[in-house]
Design a protein that fits this description.
Elements lengths: L1 E5 L8 E3 L4 H8 L3 H4 L6 E4 L2 E3 L11 E5 L6
Parallel strand pairs: 1-5
Antiparallel strand pairs: 1-2, 3-4, 3-5
Amino acid sequence: MIKIEFLGPISVEPIEMEATSLQEVANRLQEIEAVSGWLDKCAVAVNDEMTNDLTKILKSGDRVSILPPVCGG
């Protein structure tokens, strides 16, 4: 199982799913209305390492973090 966590203002509880690649996770997240609108704006980390490689292979126990843009001052 892969754990998906949504940070910041994305008000969705973490979910777990079976997935073998980041592309598979992205496809499944597009089906969740509360998440799909955020995906094109967000950065992604796998096990705390930033990536934009949708071909990245995932294994059971991996954690995918969806990080929305932030601004600060």
